[in-house]
Amino acid sequence: MTDNSRPPIGLSVSARIAARDLDVRIEVAPGEVLAVLGPNGAGKSSLLQVIAGLIVPDEGHVRLGAHTLTDSAKGIALPPHRRGVSLLAQDPLLFPHLSVRDNVAFGPRSRGASTRTARKIAEDWLTAVDATAFADRHPGALSGGQAQRVALARALAVDPDLLLLDEPMSALDVDVAPAMRTLLRRVLRDEPGRAHPRCAVLVTHDIIDAITLADRLVVLEAGRIVESGPVAEVMSHPRNPFAARIAGLNLLRGTGVESVLLPGSVAEGGAQRTAADAPPVPRTHPGDPAPTFGTVLVDDFGVDGCVVGDFVPGASAAAVFAPAAVSVFRTRPGGSPRNVFTVDVVDITDRGGIVRVRGDAPEAPGLCADLTPAAVAQLQLSIGTQVYFAVKATEVRVYAC
To answer: Does domain 11-236 have CATH number 1.10.1200.10?
Structure first.
């Protein structure tokens, strides 16, 4: 199905489009899957269109391996069908008058393969995506999941060096999407017969797509890259509110302030602080050093936490903690040192056995706490209720951003 003699292929993109306020630069290593996330209107689709050759940027380039696909300075703009790029979108866009087999064979045939060769390629890819059982059907007789598998086979039948995935699971039923992710991972990671895995760019709103398929991710906001890095790193230490939201974390941004650095203790250091001395912090392994504590100043409100990496006083910093680490009280809590926020409940949502309570505090709008239904009932929470969100400093990570 593939030519194993070709060297690994990577992607380099630089694009500025004034009319769309887009200015981005990305690199995708050979065999790498890059996930692109961001809110609606962030520029994700524009970026894919530039790579696919559907839009020519005002300034910039698109290079795939040694081949230049777009170069605005040199007037180079190869058409989509000459780029060695395939696009899999949320709509399969299969030809309704052709059978499944002929849909997949269409690409190789259009590139000069004989009917026999094209059909062999189609059969191989239909086998790879578990779709041989409906090879003779027409698209109208397929389910959504079946049609998307055929669309993937058709995209790969032309042996592209780059696969663009534009929300490929968004139109699928929730019980079908996991199987499609498994299939995509198999063809991207363990494609039979290909010496060098192709690279891919995945645009998605679903963090499950990113963490199961991608090696690295970038977050786009207002046409700019605001965060990038390995998936695990960005999800555990987000520096952007959108990245924190999709990672399911609370994030507060402010200025890093040096706090008491005594192992096992925390200074008062911020507004509404409680006792000064913390109990010894448990170590993951015997002999591990106790954590250093720092404070992030958010509108004159200090949030204490365990320092991760470089934490420079006076520089921009983030404080991050999980909703599950937040305790909720009807009266202000005392006791061990903790960060306490006075919030008004603005939303209560069922999340499959866990209730997410979102509250707005003057210094921290949109904070979330995860509680059991029993706890919500016991606290008698409702929209508009004023409560106290508390999180221990040992549950908060603070780091430079």
So the answer is: no
CA 329 to each of CA 87, 305, 397: distance values in angstroms, whole numbers, following the listed order: 51, 20, 22
- C-alpha 180, offset from chain centre: 17
Q: Give the separation between CA 137 and CA 98, rounded to whole angstroms.
A: 9
Contact yes or no for 35/217 (Cβ under 8 A): yes
> What are the pLDDT tens digits along the chain (401 aa)?
445 455 567 999 999 999 999 999 999 998 899 999 999 999 999 999 999 999 999 999 999 999 999 999 999 999 998 998 999 888 898 999 999 999 999 999 998 999 999 999 999 999 988 899 999 999 999 998 899 989 999 998 998 989 999 988 887 777 788 888 888 888 787 665 566 678 999 998 888 889 999 999 999 999 999 999 999 999 999 998 899 988 999 999 999 887 644 343 333 333 333 323 333 344 444 455 566 888 999 988 899 999 988 788 889 999 999 999 999 999 998 766 679 999 999 999 998 889 999 999 888 889 999 999 999 999 999 999 999 999 999 999 999 88
Give domain limits for the chain. 11-236, 251-400
Tokens read off for 346: 């603005």
Could you tell me which residues come within 8 angstroms of residue 182 by beta carbon, excluding any fewer than 6 positions away?
none
Structure tokens that stand for 19 in this block: 């009319």
Domain 251-400 fold is OB fold (Dihydrolipoamide Acetyltransferase, E2P) (2.40.50)
Burial of 168 (0-12, 13-18, 19+ CB in 10 A): buried
Query: Running DSSP on this structure, what letter comes out for residue 138?
Result: -
Give CA separation, 298 vs 100, 119, 204, 253, 362, in Å.
57, 63, 31, 6, 10
What's the gap between Cα 240 and its chain centre?
12
Contacts with 75 (C-beta within 8 Å, 6 or more apart), sequence order: none
- Closest by CA to 17, choosing from 228, 203, 224, 226, is 224
